[in-house]
Every structure is written in structure tokens, then in C-alpha cells.
Amino acid sequence: MSATILDGSAIASVMKEEIRRETAAFTARTGIRPGLAFLLVGDNPAALSYVASKERACAHCGFSSRTVRLPATSSLSDVLEYLDAWNIDPDVHGILVQLPLPAHISEERVINAITPRKDVDGFHPVNLGKLVLGQECFRPCTPAGIQELLIRSGVEISGRHVVVVGRSNIVGKPMAIMLMQKAAGANAVVTVAHTAAQDLGSVTRLADILIVAIGKPAAITADMVREGAVVIDVGINRVPDPDAPKGYRIQGDVDFEPVRLKASAMTPVPGGVGPMTIVMLMRNTLQAAYRATGSNDSPASRKG
Fold first, then answer.
1. Radius of gyration (C-alpha) of the chain in whole angstroms
2. Which partner for 233 in 133, 198, 244, 254 could form a disulfide, CB atoms 3.0-4.6 Å apart?
3. Stretch 24-36: mean pLDDT, rounded?
4. Distances (CA, A) of 123 to 1, 25, 136, 238, 268
């Protein structure tokens, strides 16, 4: 057996075209371009790369975007000043503060300062609370992208046993909540595991669908995966590699080649979940622009 590769890059490209066409129609009808504002604190190379990718996606989809880069020594008040301005700026429909922030700046304070109607990352407590209740909200982009990837790849979710390895507020917790909802593209039996498990493999081997987001390279090995499982690797780890042009290589949380021989389908790293995260950010921003005009949600927000 060799797993089918779930190509997030290809699916994201199709979705970006859907969003681009809908944005053009929306702008022609309303005169409004969806606008996304990015705030980056410090010069973390990975963060700079992520923001650049999101800026390119904005340009492709027909959005306006603006980026503010602050030095790592900036204060919380410096950050909040921009957020307060963007919260009331009618040309800004979505706000994204690139995480992680420097240690002296409270991520909780920053996330809470973004108005929920522009929280296109889906991290504000109001949006997360609505997610738990099964209400309409901005869903966190990575778990939303994973769900969309599974749906568009034809992976049956309803009634399947999903094991989510990881419990972060960004991926693990919202992923579990989304897939356990009694709704289309969900309705799974969900188990949440993490690295504190005394025997993590005994849990992961139960999964029909295994979603791994723990930030440890090759932490999930072939003996921890059930034959025929669908494996979603969320990890993006920089592993030193003197033979690589940049001195490192990107490694997921799953030991790819051995697991590929057991899984029925799995995502690559890179090219799997990452592009889906970005396209879901675009979808959320378009949805925010619709809501700002008093219109119903965009058709793109209801696709699956």
C-alpha cells in the first residue's frame, strides 16, 4: 500500500480561483474591495514568510492589503494602537496579527482587542464560543482548512473515529469541536490526545482519521498508525540539514515515508495543510466584507 497524497496546494488553487471570481463580482456590485490588515512584530523569518504568502494570496484574490511591521521591542500599547484604528476603519474587513508575539506582549490581550467581526483568524473568545455552540462564526483557519481538505478529497467523516493529537487553541481544540458537530462534513467520533499520554500509540492506532499537530518532527511513526488510516500532518518543523541549500529542511510531525506505506491517504509537508490555511483566511475575509455590507454570507463560505 502507498497512500494517496492529499494535495492541499491543488485544492487551495481551485478555491482561490473561486474566491477571486466571487470577489470580482462582489466588488463590481458594491464598489468595495475586501481588505485585510496584517500586523507583524519582530523579524522572525518564518513569520515574515507566512505574511508574504498571505499578501500574495490577497493580491491574487483581488483583495486590498496593508502590512505594518513593528520592531520586536514594541510595547503592547503600540500594537493596540493599530488594532483600535483598524477596528473602526471601514476599508479593513479582516485583521490578522501574526503569531507568535514577543514574550513581553500578551497574546491574550492582543486577540481580545480585535473586534470579533474582523477576527478572520477565528481566535477571539466570541468566535470560539460560537464555534463550541455550533453557531455561525469565523472558524480558525487551519482546522477549517483541514475539514475542507477532507471534504473536497472525498474522505468520509461522519461516524468515523478521528483522533486529534494536539490541544492548542489554534488547531487541536477547535479541530475536535468542528468535527464532532452534528453537521455536514463533521459528525465524527472524536478523541483528543497529546504528548502527555503514557502510550500515545495505543490511542493513535484507533484512528480512522489521524490529525497531528504537536510541533515535534516525525513524532508519529509507522507503528503508531492503523493500516488504511487517513493521516493529516499539520506540523511544519525546521530540521537542521547541512546538505540543504538553506541549512535546514521542512519536516512534518509524521514520519512521512514509513507512514505512507500504511496509510490510505495523507498530506505532504509542505504542500498539504499550509496552503489550505491561507485560502481559508481569504474565505473568512471575503465573508467579513459581505457582512460589513449587511449582505448574507458569501457563496464561497457555504461551499464544501
1. 19
2. 254
3. 97
4. 39, 29, 14, 25, 26
Catalytic residue selected from 16, 98, 251, 287: 98
* Nearest CA-CA partner of 16 in 303, 270, 292, 266: 303
64-70 and 35-41 as β-strands: parallel, antiparallel, unpaired?
parallel
Measured CA to CA, the distance from residue 38 to residue 51 in angstroms comes to 7
- Identity of the amino acid at 15: M
Q: Tell me the CB-side half-sphere exposure of residue 188, using CA atoms within 13 A.
A: 26
Active-site residue, 43 included: no
Look up residue 36 and give its DSSP letter: E
Is the pLDDT reported for residue 304 higher than 50? no
pTM: 0.95
- Nearby residues of 294 by Cβ (< 8 Å), 6 or more positions away: none
Domains and CATH numbers, the chain: 29-115 (3.40.50.10860), 141-274 (3.40.50.720)
166: helix, strand or coil? coil
Q: Could you give the CA distance from residue 275 to residue 282 in angstroms, rounded to a whole number?
A: 11
| Catalytic status, residue 54 | yes
Indicate if 78 belongs to the active site. no
Residue of 118, 119, 121, 287 marked catalytic:
121
The catalytically annotated residue of 16, 54, 118, 173 is 54
Q: Are 294 and 99 in contact (CB under 8 A)?
A: no
